[in-house]
Amino acid sequence: MLEIRELYKTFNIGTINEKHALNGVSLKLNPGDFVTVIGGNGAGKSTMLNAVAGVWPADSGMILIDGEDISGKSEYQRAKFLGRVFQDPMIGTAADMSILENLALAARRGQRRGLRMGVTRAEISKYKEALYSLGLGLEERLTTKVGLLSGGQRQALTLLMATIQRPKLLLLDEHTAALDPKTAAKVLSLTRQLVNENKLTALMVTHNMKDALQYGNRTVMMSDGRIIVDIDRENKMRLKVDDLLRLFETHSGSALVNDRMLLG
Questions:
Q1: Could you tell me if 3 and 64 are in contact, meaning their C-beta atoms sit under 8 angstroms apart?
Q2: CA angle 59, 85, 76 (to 5 degrees)
Q3: Model confidence over 39-81: pLDDT tens digits?
Q4: What is the reported pTM?
Q5: Which CATH superfamily is domain 2-98+149-263 in?
C-alpha cells in the first residue's frame, strides 16, 4: 500500500545549517500493516511522513501508494489518498466551525464542490453513529464549535475525520504527544479501533517506546535519516523497552539520547 524507495532530503543546502534529514530511506507497507516508527531527535521520522504527505518534494527517490507513483503530486493532490493526524490537537480541524461542519468537510475531501444541499439527514445520522462509537458524547454536540472541545476530544474527532473516507494510508505524527497520559491512552485505543474496523494501512510516529511495541504489527527504528531496524509482529511480542534500547545501540553504534523517549 505504501512503498518508499531510496528517499533523500537535505535542508538548507550549502549553508551552515545544512541538514541531511533523509539518507536513502526505503520502506514497504503491505495492505493492513500498522507500522510504528521510533527514533531519537532528528532521526527523520516526521520528515519521512512529510515526504509521503507531499509537504515538500524529496531531492530524489520515489513514493508509491497502492502502486501509483505520487512523487510528483502536490500535497493537495495526495490528500485524496491520505488521512493525517498531527501532534497538535489544534491542527486538522477548523476551530470556528461546528463538529458537523468539520465532519462534512472531511467527508468531501478531494471531491468537487457544487451548489447542492450542504448536509443531508442521512449524513447527519451517519455522523452521529460514528461519533457515538468514540464514547465521548460528541454525537449530542453536533452544533458545538470544535475550538471549544478539549484536546483529547479534538484529537479523537480529528482521527474520525482522517478515517471517514477510508484513506489508502493513515499518517499519525506523534498524535498523542501533547495529551496527558490518560487521554493519550484513550486516543491510542480509538486509533487501534478505527484502524482495525476500517482495515486501514497506518504509519504512526511515536516517542513512546512502550506504545511502539504495544501497537501495530511492525516497528521500525530510525537514526540519522535511515531505517536501521524493522521488527515484525512475532519479534515485537517478545521485546521490552530495554531490548529496544539495546537494538538501537547495536545498529546505530551509539546509545539513544532522547529524554522524551527514555521517560515516555
A1: yes
A2: 50
A3: 888 899 999 999 999 998 899 999 999 999 999 999 988 888 8
A4: 0.90
A5: P-loop containing nucleotide triphosphate hydrolases (3.40.50.300)
